[in-house]
């Protein structure tokens, strides 16, 4: 046996700021579980943890592909029939200047790949604050400083244009839009998308438009139909843009890891960047192969499950909003898409302490606003309103009781 003690293996220093608050809270939950309690997870956006089910024809397509021997590597950009279906989807979204499409292992990989292929050391990209934490994690991994612009809570969480103008530098290469938004559930207005397109033109920015929740719009128009989603690339067809989409949320298969990118904009301008993306696509071989055979049936087959999904989400959103409006110290901009609410909470300690104590005391798990970024001096928490109404109602009375007891609300 060697007698020397193995030296501690340290992780790269550039990971020091990589946080993933959504999963980091798991340690506190584990404590509570070890004491024999059941924790209600309102922290992870996985519909399959609740009463949502993958459409059977999609499962059949992936299963058939496996049975048919589609178990080797796929072409690096994706299988041709999936790429065709994604082009069709882009057309339905009103994107008329598609230059390229590619398949990835989830939108998570699209984000990583598109940022890695664009940004040099010393350059930056603008990300929203609050944001989905993967964006800042990827930037940290690449050693790129985070340059965050504010979403304005007083304007239904629209991007704050004045702040974007302030944060722009000559080295800014891109701006990220998350629409519908995680964590706020907000939608970008057409006027806002037009203004962002104008800004991108003036400053030669690429737009990364994360539209992973584009079929989960919860608002109605005057006829009672779901408000259509407005794709950024349809509003700014000339602007170099990558639209991120995927199967995880709209088609209820987050574990399959299937996403894609739709490259649009001025053909000559985007070409070298698009080639760079393909170099990385080849380097990582391919996205999950058999699951790609489910992309066409998903995008072109029956969409009935979405009617049910949106009906459940609307009812749960309404319940959530009512609770926010009737609970002392809590207020919330009503979510219009996805399955997240991001209430503001008026308390005299950090929202991280609030969230951790809530897990310990009431066994309900939400995520603190500081995990997503927020304006200094404000506190928030993110609720995932995927559970059924009865479970949500129980969780909300527990949170209200916790607030009442801890902050002595009248
Ligand atoms: C805004 C946003 N983008 C990307 C992702 C990652 O999605 P995927 O499962 O396709 O990797 C998520 C997952 O929650 C998300 O909320």
Structure notes:
The protein is α/β, with parallel strands linked by helices and 410 residues long. The protein is 39% helix and 15% strand. The chain contains 14 helices and 15 strands. The protein has an eight-stranded mixed beta sheet with strand order 2-9-8-7-6-3-4-5, with helices on both faces. Helix 5 (106-116) packs across helix 6 and helix 12 (304-326) runs parallel beside helix 14. The longest helix has 23 residues, at 304-326. 46% of the residues are buried. Bound molecules: pyridoxal-5'-phosphate.
Précis, in short:
By secondary structure, the chain is of the alpha/beta class. The chain has 14 helices and 15 strands.
Low-confidence parts, pLDDT < 50 over ≥5 residues? none
Taken in chain order, the helices and strands follow as: HHEHHEHEHEEHEHEHEEHHHEEEHEEEH
> What compounds are bound to the protein?
pyridoxal-5'-phosphate
Rounded radius of gyration (Å): 22 Å
Question: What's the topology here?
Answer:
Layout: H1 21-24, H2 26-34, E1 40-41, H3 56-67, H4 80-92, E2 98-104, H5 106-116, E3 124-129, H6 134-141, E4 147-152, E5 158-159, H7 161-167, E6 172-178, H8 190-203, E7 206-210, H9 232-235, E8 241-246, E9 259-264, H10 267-283, H11 295-300, H12 304-326, E10 330-331, E11 340-341, E12 344-345, H13 351-362, E13 364-365, E14 367-368, E15 381-384, H14 389-407
Parallel strand pairs: 1-13, 3-4, 3-6, 6-7, 7-8
Antiparallel strand pairs: 2-9, 4-5, 8-9, 10-12, 11-15, 14-15
Helix pairs in contact: 5-6, 12-14
The structure holds pyridoxal-5'-phosphate.
Residues 45, 106-108, 132, 178, 182, 210, 212, 246, 248, 254, 259 line the site of pyridoxal-5'-phosphate.
């Amino acid at each position: 046996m060697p007698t020397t003690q193995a030296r501690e293996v340290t992780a790269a220093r550039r990971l020091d700021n990589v946080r993933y608050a959504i999963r980091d809270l798991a340690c506190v939950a584990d404590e509570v579980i070890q004491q024999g309690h059941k924790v209600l997870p309102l922290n992870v956006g996985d519909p399959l943890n609740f009463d949502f089910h993958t459409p059977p024809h999609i499962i059949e397509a992936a299963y058939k592909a496996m049975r048919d021997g589609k178990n080797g590597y796929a072409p690096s950009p994706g299988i041709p029939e999936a790429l065709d279906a994604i082009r069709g989807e882009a057309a339905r979204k009103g994107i008329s200047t598609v230059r390229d499409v590619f398949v990835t292992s989830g939108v998570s990989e699209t984000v990583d790949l598109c940022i890695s292929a664009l940004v040099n050391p010393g350059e930056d990209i603008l990300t929203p604050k609050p944001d989905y934490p993967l964006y800042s994690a990827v930037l940290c991994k690449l050693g790129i400083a985070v340059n965050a612009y504010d979403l304005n809570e007083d304007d239904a969480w629209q991007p704050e244009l004045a702040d974007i103008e302030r944060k722009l530098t000559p080295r800014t290469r891109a701006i990220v839009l998350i629409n519908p938004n995680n964590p706020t559930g907000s939608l970008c207005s057409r006027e806002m998308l037009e203004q962002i397109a104008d800004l991108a033109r003036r400053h030669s920015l690429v737009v990364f438009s994360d539209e992973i929740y584009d079929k989960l719009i919860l608002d109605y128009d005057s006829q009672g139909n779901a408000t259509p989603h407005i794709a950024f690339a349809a509003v700014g067809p000339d602007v170099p843009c990558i639209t991120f989409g995927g199967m995880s949320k709209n088609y209820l298969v987050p574990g399959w890891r299937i996403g894609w990118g739709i490259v649009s904009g001025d053909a000559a301008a985007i070409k070298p960047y698009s080639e760079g993306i393909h170099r990385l696509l080849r380097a990582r071989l391919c996205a999950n192969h058999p699951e790609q055979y489910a992309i066409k049936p998903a995008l072109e087959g029956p969409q009935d499950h979405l009617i049910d999904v949106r009906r459940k989400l609307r009812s749960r959103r309404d319940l959530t909003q009512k609770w926010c409006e009737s609970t002392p110290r809590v207020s919330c901009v009503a979510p219009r898409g996805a399955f997240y609410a991001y209430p503001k909470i008026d308390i005299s300690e950090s929202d991280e302490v609030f969230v951790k104590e809530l897990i310990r005391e009431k066994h309900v798990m939400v995520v603190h606003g500081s995990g997503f970024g927020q304006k200094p001096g404000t506190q928030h928490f993110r609720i995932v309103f995927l559970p059924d109404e009865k479970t949500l109602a129980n969780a909300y009375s527990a949170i209200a009781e916790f607030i009442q007891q801890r902050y002595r609300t009248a």
